[in-house]
Amino acid sequence: MKKLLRLSVYLFGALLLFSSCKKERSATTGWVLNDAKWGGYEKLNYKGQATGPNLVLIEGGTFTMGYTEQDVTFEYDNIPRRVTVSSFYMDETEISNHEYREYLYWLRKVFNESYPEVFLNALPDTLVWREELSFNEPYVETYLRFPAYDDYPVVGVNWIQANDYCKWRTDRVNEMILIEKGILEVNPEQKDEDNFNTEAYLVGQYEGAVKGGVPDKSSDGGERKVRFEDGILLPDYRLPTEAEWEYAALALIGNQAYAKDERISDRRLYPWNGNTMRNGERGRYQGQMLANFKRGRGDYMGMAGQLNDNASITSEVRAFMPNDYGLYNMAGNVSEWTMDVYRPMTGLTLRDVEDHTLNPFRGSEFKQKILDENGAPVPKDSLGRLRYRVVKDEEVANRENYKRGSVLDYLDGDQESEVLYNYGVSTLVSNKARVIKGGSWADRAYWLSPGARRYMDEDKSSRTVGFRCAMTRTGSPAGNNYKGGNHFNKRKKRVKRRY
To answer: Could you tell me the pTM of the whole model?
Structure first.
């Protein structure tokens, strides 16, 4: 009997040991993870960043940024230099009229009673269509609102408005994710500051109509709110940087000679191969235009019966063939806003070339949340957003990687440089000048080259300028199915296990 009892105790202990061994443990401490009995520290089985609506993964890499054809304007403002762009996501298409009207509808519904100026400030300037010696008045009334133009790119939107749209889109997409996962109820009656904001939700300043939660591993059978560390919510939608835009437009991945070879077979003048604006491939579409642009003086769409691009102004956002990343109208249709502040000397200084070749970008203003005495974010503002401020210079005086909170004019007009931009006297370039890329329906073919660059003040708009959104890619640059490393390392691991 005693032997049987000892055997039972031994088997029970072995069973407990076996069950605890099967649970995931910390590689450095041996403690069991995701178990309330062991403290409840969570380690997710994260599958990778989901692809947001209308986005395409742009696998990053190195490329020669700058002009790929003759600088006929002699601006010398995009000198070729080798840079690397990290992987990111970009919209397949430009933001269309009906997509922007969805934004306007939401703003009016949520803010119009108390803050009507929010809706009014977001309205595109439809008067951009007017011109002294042209009859474009019908577009003033019809282009934004009439359903015939629903799928045409929105224009008359300035850089500030485009950024505000990106912030709004971030919140709507993340709210939809929480609704689809059964965490929030649909709430179409949001008003004023009581509207879903991603950051406010994460810091506990927005509750919403709660439906459920995610499993809380620190308590048996409990639930909790979603946290940033869960990886459920997507990063912010934003405008692409100039480097990202140019890299995505060229889509040189289509000219990689072999799948395992670091060679590009041909460079590109445009987002497609060849040096003309027509499709050179044999078949049904041979000879047809590849973009919407101005072919010559007074020729916006060709002759009746054989229209060359079938559009006197803009065309649908999915017109023409996409490039090798699957992006539509990266040349022609409308030029597009980027995040960057414009400077003509990009890439010329040695310091630019040597120190700023990974994700180059001019336009940083380093901000931080405004915190109370306990280190928590102060209450959100009247529109439901957290409050931020630009970092003060004295707060970063002892840092090595940056010394100022605002570096829009870093090494090009600031106290550390020898260049002085005397706006309105010797130049029209200021810290409000933002880079626009890609030619438009009103431009000649020269401006359709991804390396061409122009600028416009961030509070100005045009009938030839629209925008599309981008998003940072987290984790593996090659996508969720790629686990990192290279084939040689993987082969070594297999050989090691075999012996």
So the answer is: 0.89
